[in-house]
Amino acid sequence: MSLAPPDLPKEAKCVPPISVPTYGAGGVFSVACTAEIAGPALKCLEKVLDLPHYGVWNTFIPSAEVLTPGPDTSTLPPEVQALAAQPGFVSPGSRIRFDAVMSKSWTQSTELDVSFLEAFDPGNGNGNGKAYRVAWKGTSFPGFMLRSERVQEFVEYVAEDGSVRTRYANWETFGGMLGYVLPKGQIVAGFEKWTVGLKKVVEEEISK
């Protein structure tokens, strides 16, 4: 089932802490947003897993790479396994690095561990059961100082006009002492850029 709250904001904003798979409930705050994307869920997931091509669409994180591949993809559904097995793609248990553009003069490099990559039953009643989730968590600080986990869900459904669409839910929850002093404005702006860029690149490819 989906872990996303039903009331996620359409535009990125700070909200009270949302539960995440590794740490559960609690934390200092979350940044969250959602979007309707005119394309299949697997195509959306592909763009998020494909780190070498972030520069094509992701102005918040134009540079990203896999530092250590995940140990095993054999338990993944075949369509997800086919993506995760490609060079430079995110896989369960992999360590990755993001270079986030926080401002014109500040780029922050962050290492993360991929905590979940899975398919799930969305129970939405109007689609074909295709739904995927990927999550990663920060590794730069001890948990008491800063802990974070970001979750992205892609739930496919069939619109009234018969087209295939994806409900995209995107949130990250921050906790620990440093959670109180993080640059919320830059994080919110980055989430918005990420979501707008993902929607744009998927819909442009589908329309070709």
From TrEMBL:
Protein name, as recorded: Uncharacterized protein
Protein's organism: Xylaria bambusicola
